[in-house]
Design goal:
The protein has 529 residues and is α/β, with parallel strands linked by helices. The chain is built from 18 helices and 22 strands.
């Protein structure tokens, strides 16, 4: 005589999309503690039974490209992500991570200014992970270590190659991070100080990451006129180190470069046939978000922001910069040339609040200035100002999104509702995939889209117990009404939570139940095993 099971939670009458790309099926999900016990047929009673007739269950989404390293300490509820069905954030991207931080690199980290309420004091990656673990939060956090942090910790902001001794110190920091649970290393090769790093340096550090079977996620050196060259540089790093490669937020910026993503994805397929593991992530939007400081030529940024501000006071330097901003370059990525002043929007600024949400062309008119002079005015008054910039095309976004080597990331961060003109992708990246590209435009099947947002990133990182609705896996689950999933967050009005997530579970507890936020903070730090 069989003994029926006792579940803590039983979700009944679901359409189940399990993350494998297999066709959806119908049934129940039984949960005990933080673990899925049964999927499909269930045999038992439950402390809590919830009828989910007409709803879809998917594995909780994993945002493989996120920037909430510090803000998670301020906004641990992460509501702009749980309302998208996201249960895990992968932080430490684009070369910037919570640690390591020293006095040598602390002053040059934008996050120090951006999150001044936090005592950023993490000289080792272990220190950062320790504080993350003791902070209650609604979502899981998995972390990469930033190459920019490692280089800046040892060398500061200098345009030179590391000495042998400095290289050994950098490798030691990479090892410490991996042994503290990092899933790999990221680089941001348009940002200080990564912009000054040469390929041999990246290869040596990637070798350390490869020994731990970590990933190398790179914001490549150029996503515009030198896109193919930059992708090849990343491939060379992987080829010469053995590291597993992830190309961050893959795109082609600037109208003259539209369509090149077909070439770069073909290159990725070609080198996969030769034995390299290469994948990419993509956010469903044609605008990027970054700091205005990174719009300027590399030579202007060699001494950090203080030296930069001194340099641009010189009229001859200004004229040289203006000239370079009007044309493509073989030395740096000219983001302004790709987006123009009309598609350059001020996102957030502590010192120029009145410009938030306005584009650079409108600000120039308001100031009665030449647009280039207005750009100097803005950066002089707030060198930490954040912007949103156009330059991409919808056809490329769709092509990358549908490609078998891609997965979905937001490239956003946990927000404070109503603060700043943030990029709307922080509120809608995952729900936009479901609403626009699955429901309305039929660009992807529901099963394929869910896999790209759950199982694929779990596989890439090596998280063996998440990303699928499967017996024995952790109960990170998004339950949504497919016909109600939607977003209203837009560039001029971004601060709106997504709609349609009825229940969201993290480690077996509800972060959202019956479309209402709970006070539960069940998230945990995930560490490379």
């Amino acid at each position: 005589m069989s003994c029926s099971k006792i579940y803590d939670v039983l979700l009944k009458n679901l359409k189940i999309v399990d993350g494998t790309c297999a066709p959806a099926f119908y049934g129940n999900i039984g949960i005990k503690g933080d673990t899925i016990i049964d999927v499909g047929k269930t045999d038992g009673q439950a402390v809590t039974e919830i009828d989910c007739e007409g709803l879809v269950a998917a594995p909780g989404f994993i945002d493989i490209h996120n920037h909430s390293d510090e803000v998670v300490f301020l906004e641990p509820n992460a509501r702009n992500y749980t309302t998208q069905g996201v249960t895990t954030l992968v932080v430490g991207n684009c070369g910037v991570s919570g640690a390591p931080v020293s006095e040598k690199n602390k002053k040059d980290l934008a996050e120090v200014e951006k999150y001044s309420e936090i005592n950023i004091n993490w000289p080792t990656f272990k220190d950062y992970i320790r504080d993350l673990e003791t902070t209650k939060k609604a979502v899981n956090i998995a972390a990469l270590v930033g190459h920019g942090n490692i280089r800046g910790f040892v060398m500061g902001v200098e345009d030179r190659e590391p000495t042998t001794g400095e290289m050994e110190k950098m490798k030691a920091l990479a090892r410490e991070a991996m042994e503290s649970g990092a899933y790999g290393m990221s680089s941001g090769l348009i940002y200080d100080p990564g912009v000054f790093a040469k390929k041999p340096e990246l290869i040596e550090l990637a070798k350390v990451i490869a020994r731990y079977d970590g990933i190398y996620a790179t914001h490549i050196r150029n996503e515009s006129d030198l896109l193919v060259d930059a992708v090849m540089e990343a491939i060379e790093v992987a080829k010469n180190s053995g590291v597993r490669l992830e190309l961050s937020h893959h795109k082609a910026s600037g109208k003259r470069n539209w369509g090149l993503v077909r070439t770069t994805l073909d290159l990725m397929q070609y080198y996969r046939r030769l034995g390299l593991e290469i994948t990419c992530d993509v956010y469903p939007c044609t605008y990027c978000s970054t700091d205005l400081y990174s719009f300027f030529p590399n030579w202007t940024r060699q001494g950090g922001k203080k030296a930069f501000l001194s340099l641009i006071k010189n009229e001859e330097n200004r004229n040289k910069i203006k000239h370079q901003l009007t044309r493509p370059s073989r030395d740096w990525e000219n983001i302004l040339l790709d987006c123009g002043f009309d598609e350059l929007i001020i996102a957030s600024s502590k010192k120029l609040k009145n410009y938030e949400g306005k584009n650079a062309a409108a600000i120039a008119n308001e100031l009665n200035m030449n647009p280039y002079d207005a750009l100097f005015y803005i950066i002089e008054n707030d060198p930490d100002i954040m912007v949103i910039a156009g330059g991409m095309c919808e056809e490329d976004v769709k092509y990358v999104l549908k490609h078998p080597l891609s997965m979905v990331g937001s490239d956003g961060y946990i927000t404070r509702l109503g603060e700043g003109t943030v990029h709307p992708r922080s509120y809608r990246a995952f729900t936009k995939v479901l609403s626009k590209y699955v429901n309305k435009e039929n660009e992807l099947s529901l099963e394929y889209a869910v896999a790209k947002m759950s199982h694929y990133p779990a596989l890439k990182l090596g998280i063996g117990d998440r990303g699928l609705l499967k017996r024995g896996f952790k109960a990170d689950i998004a339950v949504f009404d497919m016909w109600q999933v939607d977003y209203v967050s837009e560039f001029n009005d971004p601060h709106h939570y997504s709609k349609g997530m009825v229940h969201v579970m993290v480690n077996g507890e509800f972060a959202i139940r019956d479309e209402h936020f709970t006070q539960n903070l069940p998230g945990m730090v995930l560490k490379r095993n």
